[in-house]
């Protein structure tokens, strides 16, 4: 769209960029309906090319137009990402080559570099001898605007990394590591540290075992600096550190985390204390701390720690299910719950009320459209319920009586569904 690059008016450029992401969304919804993504496939490289070009050319003084373009770019990639578990998602991405992806990343990184330089400059001015309150306010609002700009740029790179997986590693090495690697171990600019840690987290999670091996040591260094004193740091940075622990628990060699495991587990225990219902604004952090704790100890490499009782961690885990804040973490933990039940780590006789409440909660969430459990996990949960009814009808009956009517209905439907399908299976 020529209007995205319309040189005479920043307002026109902003409006055009925001309109393009809305149009792209409509094209994808229509494509999903008819099962044909040819239109979005055609437009994805064109839109991401022209918007990223405008981002890198935009005058830094037009911060609102710059933000509008960056936000539109990350929104377009987010729309594609929503189709990631669908064959249609792969179809949309067919036209976006690795050369194009590298060019877009290069433009985003270039813009981030300028943004970080401007932030350093403004921070220096603010720490100097500014006399007027008006002056201070003006510089602070400039700093805030630059903060806002970093987020969609980092998100855009993150989505491209998730689309490309192992193929992204050379791009990560060439552009992300030189600019952002240093901010992992230095917290001179907290927003830069958040950006850096988020992208290193993603790399360990999505880019394959070699990348996890290569980048986990740097990530761990940054994580440990933050996790040792979580009260000192911005919540976004603590969240990125905790998320990084989960990814390293799954994808990095366990001997990397072993020397630090006591500090990590104690800090995660502290972050996941208390009721989730009372967590307020910190609920996302609370839930990912629970997920990290479980991923390390209950279904991870550190299941026999001497310094903390397994039942303490199990109790925290069960008290916080179902997880709902981060769908990917929720899916992993709800599948982990099935593993713990199936391998006998959870005493179903004693835990019937809690387990039934949790299963009811997960199945309700899925019914309401939350993507917190895969079809396979839902099936396993229904089997668990069915077997509980078969093997322990009395404790199930008592547990059932303590549940609210909504949970009872969901559980009834699940048991009925499973037993009907089971009775139709003819055994030879």
Please describe what this structure looks like:
This protein is an all-alpha fold and 428 residues long. The protein has helices at 10-34, 38-57, 63-81, 87-93, 98-127, 133-164, 169-180, 182-185, 190-206, 209-227, 235-251, 254-257, 261-271, 283-297, 310-319, 327-342, 348-367, 375-391, 393-401, 405-424. α1 packs antiparallel against α2 (38-57), α5 runs antiparallel to α6 (133-164) and α17 crosses α20. The N and C termini lie far apart (63 Å). The model has no long low-confidence stretch (mean pLDDT 89).
Features:
single chain; 428 residues; mainly alpha; 20 helices; globular
Brief write-up:
With 428 residues, the protein is mainly α.
What sort of overall outline do the alpha carbons produce when their principal axes are compared?
Answer: globular
Structural class by sheet pairing and helices? mainly alpha
Radius of gyration: 24 Å
Q: What about the largest sheet?
A: none
Low-pLDDT runs of 5+ residues are: none
Portion of residues in helices? over 70%
> Beta-strand percentage?
under 5%
Q: How much is the average pLDDT?
A: 89
Distance between the termini: 63 Å
The secondary-structure element order is HHHHHHHHHHHHHHHHHHHH
* Total of helices: 20
Report the count of strand segments.
Answer: 0
Note the topology.
Elements: H1 10-34, H2 38-57, H3 63-81, H4 87-93, H5 98-127, H6 133-164, H7 169-180, H8 182-185, H9 190-206, H10 209-227, H11 235-251, H12 254-257, H13 261-271, H14 283-297, H15 310-319, H16 327-342, H17 348-367, H18 375-391, H19 393-401, H20 405-424
């Amino acid at each position: 769209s020529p209007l995205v690059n319309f040189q005479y008016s920043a307002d026109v450029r902003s409006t055009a960029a925001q309109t393009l992401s809305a149009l792209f969304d409509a094209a994808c919804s229509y494509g999903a309906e008819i099962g044909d993504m040819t239109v979005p496939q055609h437009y994805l490289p064109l839109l991401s090319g022209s918007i990223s070009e405008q981002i890198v050319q935009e005058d830094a003084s037009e911060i609102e137009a710059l933000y509008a373009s960056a936000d539109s770019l990350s929104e377009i990639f987010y729309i594609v990402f929503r189709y990631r578990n669908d064959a249609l998602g792969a179809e949309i991405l067919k036209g976006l080559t690795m050369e194009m992806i590298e060019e877009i990343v290069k433009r985003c990184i270039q813009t981030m570099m300028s943004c970080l330089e401007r932030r350093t400059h403004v921070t220096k001015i603010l720490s100097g001898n500014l006399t007027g309150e008006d002056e201070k306010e003006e510089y602070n609002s400039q700093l805030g605007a630059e903060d806002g700009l970093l987020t969609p740029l980092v998100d855009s790179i993150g989505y491209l990394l998730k689309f490309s997986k192992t193929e992204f590693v050379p791009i990560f090495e060439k552009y992300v590591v030189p600019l952002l690697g240093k901010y992992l171990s230095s917290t001179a600019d907290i927003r830069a540290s958040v950006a850096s840690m988020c992208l290193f987290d993603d790399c360990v999670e999505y880019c394959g075992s070699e990348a996890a091996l290569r980048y986990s040591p740097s990530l761990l260094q940054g994580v440990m600096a933050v996790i040792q004193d979580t009260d000192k740091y911005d919540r976004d940075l603590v969240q990125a550190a905790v998320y990084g622990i989960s990814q390293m628990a799954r994808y990095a060699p366990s001997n990397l985390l072993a020397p630090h495991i006591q500090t990590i587990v104690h800090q995660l225990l502290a972050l996941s204390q208390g009721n989730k219902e009372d967590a307020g604004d910190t609920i996302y952090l609370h839930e990912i701390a629970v997920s990290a704790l479980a991923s390390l100890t209950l279904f991870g490499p550190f299941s026999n720690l001497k310094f903390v009782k397994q039942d303490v961690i199990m109790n925290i885990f069960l008290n916080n299910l179902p997880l709902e804040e981060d769908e990917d973490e929720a899916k992993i933990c709800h599948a982990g719950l099935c593993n713990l039940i199936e391998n006998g780590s959870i005493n179903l006789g004693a835990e019937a009320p809690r387990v039934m409440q949790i299963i009811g909660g997960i199945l309700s969430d899925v019914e309401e459209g939350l993507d917190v459990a895969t079809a396979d996990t839902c099936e396993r949960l229904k089997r668990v319920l069915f077997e509980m009814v078969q093997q322990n009808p009395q404790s199930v009956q008592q547990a059932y009586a303590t549940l609210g009517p909504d949970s009872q209905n969901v559980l009834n439907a699940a048991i009925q569904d499973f037993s009907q399908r089971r009775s139709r299976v003819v055994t030879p």
